[in-house]
């Protein structure tokens, strides 16, 4: 199992759909930058997310990248920069959903996973029913196209 550095949105959605507990089954350590921790605790975050952020599990560590270079990937948020920089410093996988941040992560050759990809991973181990997880995910404010949901379900043998 590898270490993974997570951005706010995947954690937020996994908490909201009660699937956050699967992370330590797939990664030996989950690391979040301080900026992600602050976003999890911010008042706009759902109550369950703020509670989780206020009492982080032992398998989730908060860290800071040793350097900050906002020039490397213009247009990304400070949090996205922190996630990518921290992962690149220690060769970790990255979990994030933002399209521009995903492109930046891929350009560095870092292993990448998003919220939906993680649910696919968990489902591939028969730990969850993918259609039910997707149904719950659709009840959040995540921005995923119906075409992508359909593609994921078909890939796992379900009718969209």
The amount of helix comes to 40-55%
Sheet with the most strands, sense and barrel status: 5 strands, parallel
Q: Please state the CA-atom Rg, rounded to the nearest Å.
A: 15 Å
CATH architecture title: 3-Layer(aba) Sandwich
Q: Could you tell me the number of beta strands?
A: 5
Number of helices: 9
> How much β-strand is present in the residues?
5-15%
CATH level-four homologous superfamily name = 5'-nuclease
Structural class: alpha/beta
In the predicted model, the low-confidence regions spanning at least 5 consecutive residues are none
Shape: globular
Can you walk through the features of this model?
This protein is an alpha/beta fold and 160 residues long. The chain has a single domain (2-116), classed as Rossmann fold, CATH 3.40.50. The protein has helices spanning 8-16, 23-26, 34-41, 47-54, 78-90, 99-107, 115-124, 130-138, 146-155; strands at 2-6, 27-33, 60-63, 93-95, 112-113. Strands 3-2-1-4-5 form a five-stranded parallel beta sheet. The N and C termini lie far apart (31 Å).
């Amino acid at each position: 199992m590898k270490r993974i550095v997570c951005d706010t949105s995947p954690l937020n959605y996994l908490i909201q759909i009660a699937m956050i507990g699967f992370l330590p089954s797939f990664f030996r350590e989950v690391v979040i930058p301080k900026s992600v921790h602050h976003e999890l605790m911010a008042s706009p975050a759902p109550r369950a997310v703020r509670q989780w952020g206020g009492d982080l599990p032992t398998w989730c560590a908060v860290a800071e990248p040793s350097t900050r270079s906002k020039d490397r990937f213009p247009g990304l948020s400070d949090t996205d920069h922190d996630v990518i920089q921290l992962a690149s410093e220690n060769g970790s996988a990255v979990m994030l959903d933002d399209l521009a941040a995903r492109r930046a992560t891929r350009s560095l050759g870092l292993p990448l996973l998003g919220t939906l990809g993680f649910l696919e991973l968990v489902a591939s181990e028969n730990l969850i029913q993918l259609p039910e997880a997707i149904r719950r995910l659709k009840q959040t404010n995540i921005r995923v196209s119906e075409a992508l949901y359909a593609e994921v379900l078909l890939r796992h043998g379900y009718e969209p």
